[in-house]
Design brief:
The protein is of the alpha/beta class. The protein contains 12 helices and 8 strands.
């Protein structure tokens, strides 16, 4: 049975796109047919997996009803990983959707046409709480919310939680929080430890056990169009996202044998 996971946080710079890219890439590497849906007009998830969206159907075309999602799914160079790309045209989609019938569930309706073709669909949401993000929340079965280990970590998260509760009551009653993922942790600082403690108190059992450390390799990999497993599989960032994938799948994975075992 397919599962749609939205990666959301209206605050930028939290590791949202990094999480979407690497979680979907590890799921594919583990043998699960995975679709990465880029709903951020910046298109960083698209370029982060090395895909050129020029001349291709995009999420803009899908939510505006201009393209069939079946004709908008493209294979990437990574095992079992497919993408529906984004480009700058999606910026106008936020405004254009205002006059569209059932504007909040456009993405949900379109993904329903292809959902069962994939084991997992990972959606990278934009860093905002506008209509595009509402579409992501309405389409998702569960959410991963990355929170950076910094002073203002919880700033705005309460607004996101309120929005999630509103979506649950009106559009998507089965929506759940898969996990709160702490990112960019620098364990040398007292601040990071304080933020971790604060987030765990606030979200309790919903906080992921895995914490993604601050890691230069994670920051470098997208500029080469590579998920972290293809750029530096031995770095601490790669190990963290492998553990996150194991936690989601509830199974142990051996990084070096992933693709072979399930091919």
């Amino acid at each position: 049975m397919s599962k749609i996971i939205g990666v959301c946080n209206q605050k930028g710079g939290t590791g949202k796109t990094t999480t979407a890219i690497n979680l979907s890439a590890y799921l594919g590497l583990a043998g699960y047919k995975t679709l990465l849906v880029d709903m951020d007009p910046q298109g960083n998830a698209t370029s982060g997996v090395g895909f050129d969206s020029q001349g291709k159907n995009s999420t803009y075309n899908i939510v505006m009803g201009e393209a069939d999602p079946r004709e908008s799914v493209y294979a990437t160079q990574w095992p079992n990983l497919f993408v529906i790309p984004s480009d700058i045209s999606l910026t106008g989609g936020e405004v254009e959707l205002v006059g569209v019938f059932q504007r909040e569930i456009r993405l949900k309706e379109e993904l329903a046409k292809i959902k069962e073709e994939f084991s997992y669909i990972i959606i990278d949401a934009p860093p905002s709480l506008g209509l595009l993000t509402v579409n992501v929340l309405a389409a998702s079965d569960s959410l991963i919310i990355p929170i950076q280990c910094e002073y203002y970590a919880l700033e705005g998260v309460s607004k996101l939680v309120n929005t999630i509760e509103l979506i649950q009551s009106r559009l998507n009653p089965s929506l759940e929080i898969e996990g709160i993922l702490l990112t960019m942790a620098d364990f040398r600082t007292r601040l990071t430890l304080q933020v971790i403690d604060e987030v765990r108190k606030f979200f309790q059992k919903r906080t992921c056990e895995v914490i993604v450390p601050r890691n230069v390799k994670l920051a470098e990999a997208p500029s080469f169009g590579k998920p972290i497993h293809a750029y530096d599989p031995a770095c601490v960032g790669a190990r963290a996202y492998l553990k996150l994938t194991e936690s989601l799948l509830k199974e142990n994975l051996e990084a070096g044998q992933l693709a072979k075992e399930r091919s």
